[in-house]
């Protein structure tokens, strides 16, 4: 069971951004305001910390969340979506006039037993 998915509208925005910026990644810090929104960066423009949690991939992009935030969200399925508007962040979608957001729901008990494993800290290069 995937912990994270995305809407077709979010996939369209990711494809546009990938054409312009190359490989992408997401991070959700859990800070106030826009920090609680998923942020999209070119790979290498955001340094993953030792307590960041890898939740999986969406449209070929690694999705990370701060460890503190994961404590609150570990029982929820997350769906990345977009909405019109301008966030006040460094996320790559901002110039397009949209911003990424998270829609969530609690996992069902049977889903909790079959979740994709998470990884804490930077992924090792193979």
What does this structure look like?
The chain is an alpha/beta fold and 126 residues long. The chain has three helices and eight strands; from the N terminus they run βαββββαββαβ. It has helices spanning 8-21, 67-73, 109-112, and strands at residues 4-6, 24-28, 39-42, 53-58, 61-65, 76-84, 98-106, 119-120. The strands form two sheets. A five-stranded mixed sheet has the order 3-2-5-4-8. A three-stranded mixed sheet has the order 1-6-7. Strand 4 (53-58) and strand 5 (61-65) form a beta hairpin. The relative contact order is 0.26. The mean pLDDT is 90.
Q: Would you spell out the secondary-structure blueprint of this structure?
A:
Layout: E1 4-6, H1 8-21, E2 24-28, E3 39-42, E4 53-58, E5 61-65, H2 67-73, E6 76-84, E7 98-106, H3 109-112, E8 119-120
Parallel strand pairs: 1-6, 2-5
Antiparallel strand pairs: 2-3, 4-5, 4-8, 6-7
Number of helices: 3
Ends apart, CA distance between termini: 25 Å
- Which value, in Å, is the CA radius of gyration? 14 Å
Q: What profile does the largest beta sheet have?
A: 5 strands, mixed
How much β-strand is present in the residues?
A: 25-35%
Please give the share of residues in helix: 10-25%
Total number of strands: 8
Backbone shape: globular
- How does the helix and strand content classify structurally? alpha/beta
SSE ordering = EHEEEEHEEHE
Strand order in space, largest sheet: 3-2-5-4-8
The unreliable regions are none
The overall average pLDDT, rounded, is: 90
